[in-house]
Amino acid sequence: MHNVVVTGGSRGLGLAIAKMAVGSGFRVIAIARTMTEELAAAMAANPDAMAFQAWDLAEIGGLAALARQLRDTFGPIFGLVNNAGIGTAGILSTMPDAKIEQLIRLNVTSPLTLTKYLVRPMLAAQAGRVVNVSSIVASTGYSGLSVYSATKASLIGFTKSLAREVGQVGVTVNAVAPGFVETDMTHGMDPGAWAQIIRRSALRRMATADDVAAAVGFLLSDNARNITGTVVTIDAGNTA
């Protein structure tokens, strides 16, 4: 049973990805700061295929130790899904510097650094999967999300370049770019904004967390062994 690490795996999109991966035959290690009732229930239903590792991913200096602990506890890591992130909104001209630094630290520096340490054993094994969770705003933009959009755009550049660095030994690196899906991050959006997004989507509906999880599942699977450096958009045709 291959091990797959899912960051931010205790709720929302991360939990949907974790459940999907378990259903696809992987053992999932969900990383988050705290346990949730939803994750606890999923672990109880899948005691041999789900585990939880408490960690604050914003603590960049501890990520080498985290990677070592994961390998020592669970064995070789086959897959990494960089899902954890924050979606702090705000106009750039008035956003506090500390908020900008926080977004970049958790959304960019943390996944790059964790990947650095977990991709090394993948290179040694000559097999592995990395999936980065970006967003459609990385390419479309969205008012009030300039810093968040910048962090998500950086993950796409990271995906494409890392795919070339590690592809020669069979490790694939891809990204998914969800549209606006209903999660804790988007819970406070104005209902009028939701309606507008639905109206301009080709399918006249919203994509769901399960839709995104299904795309991640495909990229983790052997069926995607010859797909790397790509970005899969899941937005019900909002950007079509």
Q: How would you portray this structure in words?
A:
- The protein is α/β, with parallel strands linked by helices and about 240 residues long.
- It has a single domain (about 5-230), classed as NAD(P)-binding Rossmann-like Domain (Rossmann fold).
- The chain has helices at about 10-25, 35-45, 65-75, 95-125, 135-140, 145-165, 190-200, 210-220, and strands spanning about 5, 25-30, 50-55, 75-80, 130-135, 170-180, 230-235.
- A seven-stranded parallel sheet has the order 3-2-1-4-5-6-7, with helices on both faces.
- Helix 1 packs across helix 8 (about 210-220) and helix 4 packs parallel to helix 6.
- The model has no long low-confidence stretch (mean pLDDT about 95).
Labels describing this entry:
240 residues, alpha/beta, Rossmann fold, 7 strands, 45% helix
CATH architecture: 3-Layer(aba) Sandwich
CATH topology: Rossmann fold
| Total number of distinct structural domains | 1
**Main sheet: which strands, in order across?**
3-2-1-4-5-6-7
The CATH superfamily appears as: NAD(P)-binding Rossmann-like Domain
Helix content: 40-55%
Radius of gyration in whole Å, from Cα?
17 Å
Gist?
The chain has 240 residues and is an alpha/beta fold. Helices cover 45% and strands 17% of the residues.
How are the SSEs placed, and which strands pair?
Blueprint: E1 3-7, H1 12-23, E2 27-32, H2 37-45, E3 50-54, H3 63-74, E4 77-82, H4 97-125, E5 128-133, H5 137-140, H6 146-166, E6 171-178, H7 191-199, H8 209-220, E7 231-234
Parallel strand pairs: 1-2, 1-4, 2-3, 4-5, 5-6, 6-7
